[in-house]
Amino acid sequence: MAKKRRERREVDNISAELTKKETETKDGAHITGPAYSGGGSARVSLLILLAIFTCAASVMYLVYRNFPELSDDEKDKMIIPKDMDDAKALGTVLSKYKDTYYTQVLVAYFATYVFLQTFAIPGSIFLSILSGYLYPFPLALFLVCLCSGLGASFCYMLSYLVGRPVVHRYLTEKAQKWSQQVDKHREHLINYIIFLRITPFLPNWFINITSPVINVPLGVFFLGTFFGVAPPSFVAINAGTTLYKLTTAGEAVSWNSLAVLGVLALFSILPVCFQKKLQQKLK
Question: Which family does the UniProt entry place this protein in (predicted)?
Fold first, then answer.
């Protein structure tokens, strides 16, 4: 009898140990490698991004289809500009139809600019210059700022939807450190966004993609982008008034304009510096 009891206790202990190990494994206590679900999440994120891009490209196709009928030569010029020659050729076509088909041209310009910004596709700088050639300065400036703000915000949301889960899964410690740094300066985030938009320290696509990862609010991000891109856009639009005298995008920026941008960037960050000094004195 005693022998049977001992055997029964041993069986119960083994069963309990196995149950404990299964529970720990499910909870992830002993899992050292990346879980399979992470790969699944990455694939799902990629599929979502591909679906969104396909929908956006379809919208662009519809915009193009509703554009006035073009000749074969004009169709060849209707491309996303990669240099000033492309921008000049595109400007020739759009200016020809702008007065007669004002709404179609404006919608095409707006949709193309937002599309480029949303998916971080190069070419928006040439559209900014082109706006100064096509439209009056106040309208051109508002249009570029609005397109930049909306396009960057859509890119922000794409990064939040697709990139943020991946970063938090595989770069957890870095994401936490970035978020902690943002939390320290949360009341001045709009100043930092404006400063980064004016200055060339970080590329715009990098700011768009990383902002949701470090928990920058979307409203602050949009406003900071809208007002932050205004000074550089001012320079580009002003250069667009003499579009056909330009040979490269670099000619749109002079030393005087760089000095003005530097001063504006300094003004955008001054409130932060003054408040920090004031807080130090009060302590």
Answer: Belongs to the TMEM41 family.
Residue 273 lies in a domain: yes
Mean pLDDT throughout 128-138? 90
Give pLDDT tens digits for 66-80.
888 888 888 888 888
Its pTM stands at: 0.73
CB 80 within 8 Å of CB 116: yes
254 torsion bin: left (phi>0), alpha (psi -120 to 50), beta (else): beta
Residue 36 lies in a domain: no
Residue 274 forms part of a structural domain:
yes
Q: What percent of the chain has pLDDT over 70?
A: 63
pLDDT in tens, 191-229: 888 888 888 777 888 888 888 888 889 999 999 999 999
Rounded to the nearest angstrom, the gap between the alpha carbon of residue 200 and the centroid of all alpha carbons in its chain is 15
Cα→Cα distances 208→120, 193, 220, Å: 9, 10, 12
Tokens in use for 100? Answer: 């007669």
In a domain, 101, yes or no: yes
Q: How many domains does one find in the chain? A: 1
**Over the chain, what is the mean pLDDT?**
75
